[in-house]
Structure formats: structure tokens, C-alpha cells
What we know:
The protein is of the alpha+beta class.
Amino acid sequence: MRPALPCLALALLCVLCAAAEVPVQPGFDTQKFAGKWHFAATVSNCSMYLKMKDGMKSPIATISFTPEGNLAMKLAWPLPDRCQRLELLFQRSGQAGHYVAQEKRELRVMETDYSHYAIVHETQHSEQQPSTMLQLLTREQDVSPQLLQKFEELIPAVGLTKAMLAVLPKSDQCTAAIS
């Protein structure tokens, strides 16, 4: 399981921009965005994600920002026998809401209302296989049918298909691990 964890973490966050530039939330506000988020739905072409998506439960992330404006993310996701934790740091790029990690990953907050949902896009550029992921994050574990529909409508725009979608079941398994 250990070798699969980096890809799983990547699958939780990675999205590859198809052809066009992916938009970023206008006027992105880091203070409003910081805090706890649940992963309600995910769609990706990452091969490891596709193998595991049907058995995944909703991970939790706590997002904060460094004084330099970098995005720090603490992740905890439920595995059958434990909670897996991971900490990620994305450097601020020239545009608010757009972050990079090790020049191979790009994270963009495409859209958010800050208090209910966020749609996050990340690209993973690798020599082996670039991957794409789009994620619907929510402040609470429940997601409305209207919000899920809005998310599903974005899937083709990033070069993915609905067959790659996982609507993640609720899980309180890792709540204590992210505190």
C-alpha cells in the first residue's frame, strides 16, 4: 500500500489542463478559503485513482496559508485499517488562487463561495503519465444535488468523463486525525 500512497494523494488533488487555461476564482481570498474542507466528489484519469475510486470514502483537508502566501494542506483520508495523513505545500504563483508544487503540480481554485463549496483543479505533469483531477470540496459532508450537477457539468471541460467520477460517501473515520 505504501507505494500507492503518493499516487493516491496525487489522485486526491491532481488535474491536468486539457487544452485551454483553467480559470481561477476572481478575487480569490485566502482568509475566507482557509479552514476544513470535505472531499465530496472527485473525477480523475489517474490510473491508481481509477482502480481505487469505488472503495474510497470522503477525505478531509485543512487548508491554511503561510505568511508568504503559500497554501499548506493537511490531508486525512480513510483507508480500511487506518487514516492516512499527508501534508502538502504549494507555492504561490503570480495569480491568487493558483499554486505550484515542485514545478510538476499546479493547483487552481476554479470556483468557491467560501462557506459551502469549492471546485479545485490540479495538474500533475509527470514523465510517465500526466493526470487530471477535478474535485468538489464542501464545508459540510452533505452535498446538494444542484451542486453535484454543477460539478458534473464541468467534467468534460477539463477533458474527463463522468465514468471517472466518484461521489465519495461520508466518513467520520478521520475527523480526529485532521484536528
